[in-house]
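Exercise 7b. Backbone tokens:
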């Protein structure tokens, strides 16, 4: 159970990056649909549980040391290479979003320029990637419980300090920009683009896991924790939509409303999750091309990290609203093939 929780926590830590923990993604994919956003959160939870289990089992059954192994298995020799290319470069794209998100967080909370904040995060990620795989997964897993605790505090405050009636909050929420045309599509898109990136590290983590049951349960626990966090953040923002509407970092805004100390703790949690996701994405991207034990691995990490920082200068909100949506539609193919593989051949216990 301990191993399953570590795998699940690392899976959560990877996906709960800048857009998720800040509330920006949850706002665009769930809260912007008002009350129906809660239904979207429930659908998302069920999808994350099923797909987390499926990819964890695929990773451990195929003994995968890169996402390429599983993608070629579920996609075959024609679709597999296309998925490989798309997901590989999406990993880099998400890391870029994380650097931009770090810039926004440092700027909003500490008054540091966004560029300087992005530089700090890029440097921290590059240094971490010089460690070994087990240390990276351990670091990612440890920050998740801390984030959950902070989100619970914000949720409780938001509900008990709600000034609007539910119909008023619903109306105001629906005025916010949405990343999809309806709540159900938003839920599927959200799972799709997160899985396109999160599946890569989940596959790598479980590929080295000998206990197949622990790996599968890790995927289930990770999916469940993700879903619960989405619903909690959504409810918290819905309750105080009058405060968070139009903010780059809605969760941080709510935390500051409670107390400056809570705001500081939330900023630290946000930066921790941004760091987690950036580390996981850049690591998965790099090992797709270069083995960690290779002499060229370290120089490659430095070059890729610097390129990621340069690309992040486009801006956080712009990247969340465009890069993620496009990749979400492409991720649907991955989900369909994963389900087909699951139906085609029962996974070993």
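Sequence design result:
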């Amino acid at each position: 159970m301990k191993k399953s929780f570590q795998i699940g926590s690392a899976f959560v830590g990877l996906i709960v990056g800048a857009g998720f923990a800040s509330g920006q993604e949850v706002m665009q994919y769930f809260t912007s649909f008002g009350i129906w956003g809660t239904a979207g959160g429930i659908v998302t939870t069920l999808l994350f549980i099923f797909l987390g289990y499926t990819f964890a089992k695929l990773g451990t059954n195929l003994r995968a040391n890169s996402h390429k192994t599983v993608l070629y298995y579920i996609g075959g020799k024609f679709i597999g290479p296309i998925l490989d290319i798309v997901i590989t470069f999406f990993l880099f794209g998400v890391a870029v979003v994380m650097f931009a998100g770090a810039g926004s967080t440092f700027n909003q909370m500490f008054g540091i320029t966004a560029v300087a904040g992005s530089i700090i995060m890029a440097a921290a990620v590059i240094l971490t990637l010089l460690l070994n795989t087990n240390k990276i997964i351990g670091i990612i897993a440890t920050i998740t419980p801390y984030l959950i605790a902070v989100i619970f505090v914000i949720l409780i405050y938001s509900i008990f300090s709600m000034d609007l009636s539910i119909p008023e909050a619903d109306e105001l929420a629906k005025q916010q920009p949405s990343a999809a045309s309806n709540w159900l599509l938003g839920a599927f898109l959200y799972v799709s683009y997160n899985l396109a990136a999160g599946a890569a590290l989940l596959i790598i983590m479980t590929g080295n896991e000998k206990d197949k049951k622990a790996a599968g349960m890790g995927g289930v626990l990770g999916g469940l924790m993700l879903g619960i966090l989405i619903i909690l953040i959504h409810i918290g923002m819905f309750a105080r939509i009058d405060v968070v509407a139009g903010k780059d970092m809605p969760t941080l805004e709510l935390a500051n409303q409670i107390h400056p100390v809570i705001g500081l703790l939330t900023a630290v949690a946000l930066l921790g999750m941004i760091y987690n996701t950036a580390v996981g994405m850049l690591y998965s991207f790099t090992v797709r091309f270069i083995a960690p034990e290779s002499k060229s691995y370290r120089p490659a990490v430095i070059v890729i990290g610097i390129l990621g920082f340069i690309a992040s200068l486009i801006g956080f909100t712009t990247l969340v609203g465009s890069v993620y949506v496009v990749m979400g539609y492409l991720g649907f193919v991955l989900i369909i093939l994963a389900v087909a593989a699951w139906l085609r051949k029962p996974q070993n216990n």
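Instructor comment: Residues 67-110 form the longest helix (44 residues). The two ends are 16 Å apart (CA to CA).
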